[in-house]
Amino acid sequence: MDKTLFLFTLIAIAYAILPVGEAAFINKIVYLKNVLLIPVFYLFGRNTKLTYADWNTGFKLFLGLTLVTTIVVVFEKMVGYHLHAFIDSALYHREMKDIDLKGVFGIGYTFEAQGGKPRYASLYANPLELSASMLLLVSYTIYQMVNSKNKTNKLIYFFFLVLGLLSLLFAYSRATFLAFFVMLVFVAFQLKYYRIILSTFVLASVFGLYFMFLASDELRYFVIDTITFQNSSSLTHVLDWLEAIDSMINNPFGIGLGTSGNVGGVESDLIVGGENQFLIYGVQMGFLGAFIYFLVLFLGIKHCFAYQRTLGSNEEKMVPFIAASVKFGLLLPLLTANVEAYLFISLVTWWMIGHGEDQYIDSKKHVQYSNPMSRLKLKSD
């Protein structure tokens, strides 16, 4: 994992320094800064020894943030007005980032669905980041509900789980909503608590029945058009994917940093693709860059999942469990958005991956040392 992430970092640095692509050098450096945040926060996780109490305190603060977030997003829904419009986030983007936000509400296209239906973000930067962050809440609350022996605590965590689902619904993110159900199945296999799969099936059935018999025609057509890629948002995803794939085929080694995605350093005139995190890196750093990024994700999830099979305590397993669950759940949103631009959920989970990797390596060393044959080998070495 360490070596793979180090290789990804070296590739990004090389593409920033070498004269590859049309982006200005300063734009490449700005974009490189965004990429380097991933290994930096991973190394924080690898090298800081936070206890279960430390992590739990952080998660309780996150629960408090979620309570405020839900109150705000419910108020937004009731009055039909965005907090971002009230605080004039368009002015901030125009003055600080030189970006002219457009859309029906004047605060960006991510705040609207098909037909101008509003999507809310509460205290987060945009609705997609809000919905992605709720996956973190879901994994934490489920873990505590399963492992807590106190019924009152179980009810409290269930209450916050409901709040998270409410925020997820008002954010109106189709990819994250589907990722929620996929993540629940993954959570069940991690915890070996297969009743979660039954609960997932029941919950999915309830939504299905609501969609078939109670939902408005507008919502029904929206879902059907999404599945058949006939609405404007889904069609935009497809066109951007094809554009990115075409660029990768014609330029298998990439066209340089700052040419895809929507984070700092990307010039609007140079953007190719941008609706898929893997393709975003593929356009810029070629097939190798995209594959190494995928490999980093795969190893992070695999090692944190493997740690669940050790003899560690529930407290020790909490962070690797949440890291694996959220990163697995984000795989689907990664296919439709530039998820690494959602700094909160991205960087917190990379920190957790680093923490989980540290525990995974320690557990392997412990198993190796406790094996008599391994000790003999270590002595002979």
Q: Write the H/E string, N to C.
A: HHHHHHHHHHHHHHHH
Largest sheet features: none
Overall strand count:
0
Number of helices: 16
Overall number of structural domains: 2
* Low-pLDDT stretches: none
Write the layout of secondary structure elements.
Blueprint: H1 2-17, H2 25-47, H3 52-79, H4 83-86, H5 89-96, H6 127-147, H7 151-171, H8 174-191, H9 195-214, H10 217-227, H11 232-250, H12 277-307, H13 314-329, H14 331-334, H15 343-370, H16 372-380
Helix pairs in contact: 1-2, 1-12, 2-15, 3-7, 6-7, 6-8, 6-13, 6-15, 8-9, 8-13, 11-12, 12-13, 12-15, 13-15
Explain what you see.
The radius of gyration is 22 Å and the shape is globular. The protein has two domains: about 190 residues, no CATH class; about 160 residues, no CATH class. The protein has 16 helices and no strands. The longest helix is centred in the last third of the chain and has 31 residues. With about 375 residues, the protein is an all-alpha fold.
